[in-house]
Amino acid sequence: MGEWGAAFGRQEATHSGEFLGVAPTQKRVEIRYMDFWKVVDGKIVDNYVSVDFAWVLKQLGVDVFNGEGWESFDKGEKTAPSPGGGC
Q1: 3-state DSSP percent of the chain in helix, strand and coil, to 5
Q2: Which residue has the higher pLDDT, 75 or 35?
Q3: Residues 6 or more apart in contact with residue 62 via CB below 8 angstroms
Q4: Residue 71 sits in which domain range?
C-alpha cells in the first residue's frame, strides 16, 4: 500500500572467503538487513538495501568503531557526552 514497501530480516552464512579484508574464519555469522522498494503504478521502480556490515565484522572479531560503539556506553565503559558540549 502506498508509494513504499519495506522489509527487514536476517540471513545466516559461513565466512568461507575473504570478506572486507578479513581472511576466512569458517564462523557462522548473522547478516541483518533492511530492504525498501519504491512503487509507482504497481511496479517497483527503485530499491534500497541497508546491510549491517559492522555487525557482521564484529562477529568476525573486527571492531570497526574501535571501542566507541554503543555497546561501550551500554556496558558503562564510557559515558556519553551531554548535549550542547556540557554547557
Answers
A1: 20, 40, 40
A2: 35
A3: 22
A4: 4-16+25-77
Residue 85, in any domain of the structure: no
Q: Residue 47 contacts by C-beta under 8 Å, 6 or more apart in sequence?
A: 35, 36, 37, 38
**pLDDT (tens digit per residue) in 54-80:** 999 999 999 998 888 877 888 888 888
* 86 domain residue, yes or no: no
Within a domain: residue 62? yes
Name residues whose C-beta falls within 8 Å of residue 53's C-beta, 6 or more positions apart in sequence.
20, 64
Candidates 71, 66, 69, 62; CA nearest to 19 is 62
Query: In total, how many domains does the chain have?
Result: 1
* pTM exceeds cut of 0.85: no
